[in-house]
Amino acid sequence: MLHRTYNDQNCSVARALEVVGERWTILILRDAFRGVHRFDDFQRSLGVARNVLQTRLLRLVDEGLLERRRYQEHPPRHEYRLTPRGEDLWPVLLALMEWGDRHRSAGEAAPRAVHRDCGGALTQRCLCSACDAQIEVGDVELRYDGSGTRAA
Amino acid sequence: MLHRTYNDQNCSVARALEVVGERWTILILRDAFRGVHRFDDFQRSLGVARNVLQTRLLRLVDEGLLERRRYQEHPPRHEYRLTPRGEDLWPVLLALMEWGDRHRSAGEAAPRAVHRDCGGALTQRCLCSACDAQIEVGDVELRYDGSGTRAA
Fold first, then answer.
1. Where in the sequence is the domain holding A142, given as residue range(s)?
2. pLDDT tens digits, residue range A93-112?
3. Considering the domain boundaries, does residue B145 fall inside one?
C-alpha cells in the first residue's frame, strides 16, 4: 500500500526539488562550485538565455542558496556566491557526477572531482550514524511515523 | 577563466541531468525505491497527468533505469522495476533527502531513510579513495586534464 498521507509536501526529496529541481538551477550551482560568480561568466558557460539565467539566479538568492554581492561601485556590478545552504548541496552534485561518470560517460573523460591535497578520487559512502555500518541500497528502510532511533 | 572546452557535453553532472533532470523523473525513481511499481500506483502517488507519467516511465525504460516487466497475462499488465543502473542513483536521492530535511523541512517531519537493521539515521560521507581522508567541500578540486591520481 502507498502512504497517501505522505505526499510531496511531506517529502524531503520533493521539497528539495522545489528549489533545485530544474536542470539550469543545478548547472548554475555546479558552476558556482567551480568558481563561476559573475552573470556574464555563467551565461557563457551555460549558453542559457539571459532572462532565464536572471530568473534562476534571483530565485537562488531568494531561497538563500546564493548571495548577491556588489564587487564594483561605478558602474555597480554584482556577483553570486554560494551561501552555507548552497554549499550543503555539494553531496548532491557529487552523487550526480559519480552516476554520470559511471553510466553516461560513453568513454569520454569528464572533469573529475578529486581530493585537493593528494589528487585521489572521491567516493561517497553511506554510513549508519548509530552502528557505523556501511549502508547499501538494500539496507535502507523508509520510516513514515517518527519511529526509529535518531543518531546518538 | 572558465574552461570553455568542457561544456555540458563533457560534464558528468550535465550528462546525468539529461536523464534525471526533471522533477517528475526523480520523484518516479523515489517512488520506485520505496516500493511503487505499477502505473496506477505511481499515478496516485504523484498526481501527475497520465500521459506525462507514461512518457517519463518509457524514457526511464529506454535509458535503462527501469525495467518493464509483465506481471499478468490476461489482460496483460506491466510493472516497472529499478535496474542496477537505476539503483545506483540512490546516493543522489539520499543527498537530496538530507538537504531537504536540513533546509526545507519547516519543522515538519518527513519520511526518513534509516538503517533497516538498527533504525539508525543514515549519513553520507565523502572520502578520498587514495588517502582515506574525510572530504569537506573546501577539500575538493575539479581536474579537467586527466591529471591527478586515480584511486589505488
1. 90-152
2. 999 999 998 898 777 778 88
3. no
Domain count, chain B: 1
The domain boundary, picked from A40, A63, A88, lies at: A88
CA atoms in the 13 A half-sphere facing the CB of B127: 13
Q: How far is B82 from chain A (nearest CA, A)?
A: 12
Amino acid identity at A9:
Q
What gap in Å lies between CA A39 and CA A24, rounded to an integer?
A: 14
CATH code of residue B29: 1.10.10.10
ipTM higher than 0.90?
no
Whether the full predicted model's pTM is greater than 0.90, yes or no, is: no
pLDDT tens, residue by residue, B14-55: 888 888 887 789 999 999 998 999 999 999 999 889 999 999
In the block, cell 539550469 appears at: A24
Report the residue count for chain B.
152
CA angle A85, A89, A91 (to 5 degrees): 140
Say whether A12 and B98 touch across the interface (CB within 8 A).
yes
On whether any CB of chain B is under 8 Å from the CB of A40, the answer is no
Of A71, A88, A105, the residue that ends a domain is A88
Contact B48/A at CB under 8 A: no
Chain B closest-CA separation from residue A27 CA (Å): 7
> Could you tell me if residue B38 is inside a domain?
yes
Assess whether A97 and A50 both reside in one domain. no
Instruction: Test B27 with A44 for CB contact under 8 angstroms.
Output: no
Q: Is B149 on the interface with A (CB under 8 A)?
A: yes
What is the tens place of the pLDDT at every residue in B89-125? Answer: 999 999 999 999 889 877 777 888 899 999 999 988 9
